[in-house]
Request: fold
Amino acid sequence: EHVDTDLAESISALKDAFTRSGSEHKLGRAAPELIAALKEKLKLPRRYRTFLLDHDPLDVEVATPTERVRLLSSAELEKEQLGFALADDGARVSGPTVSGWRPSWIIIGHSGLLGDPYFLDVSDVDNEGDCPVYTAMSGTEQWQPRLCAASFATFLRILAISLDVARGFDI
Reply:
């Protein structure tokens, strides 16, 4: 799987924003066999799998005056789904939980300030092999998703813009 133009531009924008901000970040490469297993178990869409294979976020946190978004590495993904898209025994849940979490919501990051999850809705994959990114407030009775970006590639661009806007603020 190759990195398409939209994803490549989004990744480049994020890397450039990290460089301009002076923020530390560490990207790596995920093991293809791990990504194949995650594709099977979590139904990860093509564009997100491609991102992990070439730019696995080993230590990536976007800090702004109002939020800190920490992306999960491929090694953390499966464990982070336990109690959400996966039951405690690691099996996929078959339907929405009592609190409304859906099996198609795959956590890809967290708010470093509030702990709220950022997640893909893998039931809504587009022709580019991408899907929307949502967040929802944790600690509430029912999960109420809020759209962050229409696609993962767009989410990366939003993170890049947020880093650029945050430059000059004392974070």
About this structure: Strands lie at 26-28, 56-63, 68-71, 105-111, 117-121, 133-135, 146-149.
